[in-house]
Amino acid sequence: MYPLLRLFRQDLRETLRLSVPIVIAQLGVVLMGVTDNLMIGRMLGAVPLGAAGIANSVTFMIGSIGFGGLLIVSALISQAQGKGNPGEVNRLYRAAIRAAWLLGLVLGVVCTLMAWQFQIFGQTPTVTRMARPFVLILTLSNVPLLLFIAIRQLCDGLSRPKVTMYITLSALGLNAILNYFLIHHLGLIGAAIGTLLARCYMALAIWIYVKRDSFFIPYLKTQGTLPLTPLITKILRLGLPSGFQFFFEIAAFSLAVIMVGWLGEAQLAAHQIAINMASTTYMMATGIAAAGSIRVGNAVGRRNRPAVQRAGTAAFLLSIVFMAGCCVLFLTAHEWLIGLYIRDNVRVTAIATTLVIIAGFFQLSDGVQVVGLGVLRGIADVNVPTLLTLIAYWVVALPLSYVLAFPLGMDATGVWIGLLAGLTVSAALLTYRFYHKLPRVKLDEIEPEVAHV
């Protein structure tokens, strides 16, 4: 018993060591949106805040297909490292960059069309007018962000995430400085331009780092002669289901933004405050999920089933502890947190208070479900989890949100109770899927598929 406990403690330590830089890097990415909203709310007011919020939601909803889809690469790289195959690591890295360009182009066209027809979201004329150019600039900024995420998979998959953390944090500071000056001179559109410039810096900085750091030389020089097209196809085949997993959840929350916008501008501003807080903790939980996926993938590469189970369980436990702390923070410090976004607007503050309290309750469900997706991605189980997230968010969460908010008259509170229900269903289904699937996974069948690409 004691050796087993000692091994499990080691898994917790290793997952935590890998998680912290990834969590901070993930937090830095989402805090760019939070910084935009903080500065827009303080400098421009509630209506521009709502417009920026819905623009961010729509753009991130479409971009999430690419953001989530590329995360499979770190697990594949970790498997290749576990097999001692630097040539495969190199091909995965180059294929990921090409996949990022392709995803940026395709998803950019979709976002542009949505910006052109933004009136379909049924927002007020003022919000629609403000949001349309904001969406177009954020769409352009998604391209360097996708490239950053693609290159970051090499660092994360090889357990070298610290520099990406530093790059993201420095970009966060750059974004805040740019926002201050650009919002002052250009208004709302200045915040979008600041985000674009900060994301370009991120992509350039991580590319230079990987090219110059001696640690990556063995992986960058060992290219091999196999073509990249089959590997790009593999990344898209395994990654797009993962991307749609993110899309179904983020789309549910983005459509919730649209529903809340139907209720009024005060409700929209309050929702944006609460969703920013929940998105911050969610993105931090995705860092734990990414670490779990990497460690599970490495154990798969070594064909070590007990290590796969320990790595997955460690990720679940770390997420539960972290999100429990976030729950306590939301429930006890909601007034102070809301005050960071907006002051002297009693109605928005009152609505936001209720929503932040509900957000506190769904922290545990949100953390468990995103880690469930991560560890399942580590064992290359992506199709069934995609179906489960579709059911949780589009069959449970969104219909229930609409019924509670409109026919039952619960306003924005009803929307958030529906989201809570969907997250809870997702958490339960994905956790069951991992522990039910694990004993049946044939590790010797996962490894050759990767090796022969």
TrEMBL record:
GO CC annotation terms, alphabetical: plasma membrane
Gene Ontology MF terms: antiporter activity; xenobiotic transmembrane transporter activity
This protein's UniProt keywords: Antiport, Cell membrane, Ion transport, Membrane, Transmembrane, Transmembrane helix, Transport
Coiled coil: none
Protein name (Swiss-Prot/TrEMBL): Multidrug-efflux transporter
Gene Ontology biological process terms, A to Z: monoatomic ion transport
Bilayer disposition of the protein: Multi-pass membrane protein
InterPro entries, A to Z: MATE_fam (IPR002528), MATE_MdtK (IPR050222), MdtK-like (IPR048279)
Subcellular location: Cell membrane
Organism: Salmonirosea aquatica
Transmembrane domains' residue ranges: 16-34, 54-78, 99-118, 130-151, 163-182, 188-210, 244-263, 269-294, 315-338, 350-375, 387-408, 414-435
